[in-house]
Write a structure and sequence with these properties.
The structure is a homodimer. By secondary structure, chain A is α+β, with helices and mostly antiparallel strands. Chain A has two domains: 64 residues, Orthogonal Bundle (Arc Repressor Mutant, subunit A); 158 residues, Chorismate lyase, CATH 3.40.1410.10. Chain A has eight helices and eleven strands. In chain A, the strands form three sheets. Chain A has a six-stranded antiparallel β-sheet. In chain A, a hairpin with a 3-residue loop joins strand 2 and strand 3. The radius of gyration of chain A is 21 Å and the shape is globular. The two termini of chain A are 23 Å apart. Chains A and B meet through helix 3, strand 8, strand 9 and strand 11 of A and helix 3, strand 8, strand 9 and strand 11 of B. Strand 11 of chain A pairs antiparallel with strand 8 of chain B, so a sheet runs across the interface. The first copy, chain A, binds a DNA duplex through helix 3.
DNA sequence: GCCGATTTGTCCGTATGTATC
DNA sequence: CGATACATACGGACAAATCGG
């Protein structure tokens, strides 16, 4: 980003990640950060607010801003924030690949509207993909995209990254994402396209994505093999 | 809370929840809210920031603040924010009960420290509880509390609410909570104390809680029967 | 296409309150 | 009690995006 507060946030975050500010120590107080970054008090506060919401620090009144982040050894595929499949795979250092199995236009009937949250009559793009890691099919995505906001989307693009296409080519910005995690039985369809070994249940992430216009543009159900699934979240009281 | 921005947040949130401000409509602009609530524009902005982080609205520059929350029919046990087991049960309208199975003091050895994130040598309170809904044992909690900050904790209190005890009696405030959701095999121990039917896997939520002092005071692993488990989360780009 | 009004986003400086030490 | 540090709130300024005439 190009805003001051976000650059300060990134700088502080990186210093925590690389251990410059360590777990259970205080970062410099506002008064010093003002001089360090040559900005106002409120801008520092905004940066620290973002740090807090990401679980890196916890401000303590009268004392200081404490680092509560500890670098963790997370072996598996970790979700968090809003990031694309490709980004998440790269961050976890995995060789990833995507296969598009279904690519068709549909019109939402009442049942589909109820299921996805779209309106009855919306023209949708129905997409089913399988995500492979090191050649193993571990994730199955069933997606519905609002067709009107994804012109020119092809199966080939879908096998790369729909988000990258939306943000890069179409100039769209993804903003808010509501996610729900549940656990479901694996179906015969799951078994047909995924390498499930003897697992009979899957971690299911249902995702409703809104663009900068506040329009719900995507509803995706991601079905993950349990041994490669981790979902991380930070909650802050009062926020 | 007694702060202005939080009261405004609650008022706006309630008006969204009761349908006064509806899905895909705009709430009044800052300029009007300033007059409505008799406060400064920054205070309004703070309130709206909290609304956004909770997934109720999405501000759109040049247009307004759009409501993107839709009342959902969530049948099961929904996690989200920081709330106690009792609060969540009540909110979901379920008859809930807790049984304490294990209640003992332990000292963290190296293995336990690695597992929980506490320091080697910390005095901990090891607690195992089973949560019952309508008489069925659906959740199993394995918790470690930092003993020094929970003086006077008894099995009886643990069967009520440890958080209520901490906040009410001890005057502590729970602030930040890092949670990780995974899916694991049910163990023989799980089967012994839970009503698992024929489920062989569980949704596992691992929780690290910090108090207002930035001290990690609790590490809990909650093991949920899949058919009664839902985890909800809202992510906002750039926050 | 341009201009002005509206609305949100960022940033600043200041004042006051509250908690810690 | 005073110094330090975070928390809340105010009011003002300008930028960026949108929309209507």
């Amino acid at each position: 980003m190009r805003t001051i507060y976000y650059e300060i946030y990134e700088d502080l975050r990186d210093k925590i990640l690389e251990g410059f500010y360590r777990y259970q120590t205080y970062i410099p107080p506002e008064s010093q950060l003002i001089h360090l970054y040559q900005c106002s008090h409120n801008t520092i506060r905004k940066s620290i607010s973002v740090l807090m919401l990401h679980g890196f620090v916890q401000p303590i009144r009268g004392k200081g801003v404490l680092v509560i982040y500890r670098p963790e050894r997370r072996a598996n595929f970790v979700l968090g924030d809003i990031e694309t499949f490709k980004e998440a795979a790269a961050r976890n250092g995995l060789e990833a690949q995507t296969q598009a199995l279904v690519f068709e236009h549909v019109v939402a009937d009442e049942a589909l509207a109820e299921l996805t949250g779209f309106m009855t009559g919306d023209e949708l793009l129905h997409l089913e993909r399988v995500r492979l890691f090191e050649g193993k099919a571990l994730i199955r995505d069933k997606s519905y995209f609002l067709a009107s906001v994804f012109p020119g989307l092809t199966p080939r693009i879908a096998e790369d990254s729909v988000y990258a296409y939306a943000e890069g080519v179409l100039g769209m910005r993804i903003v808010t994402s509501n996610r729900t995690v549940t656990v479901d039985y694996a179906t015969a369809d799951d078994r047909a396209v995924m390498d499930l070994l003897d697992f009979n249940m899957l971690a299911v992430v249902t995702n409703h994505t809104f663009n900068e216009q506040g329009v719900m543009i995507e509803c995706t159900q991601s079905r993950h093999r349990p041994d490669f699934f981790t979902f991380h979240d930070t909650a802050v009281r009062g926020y």
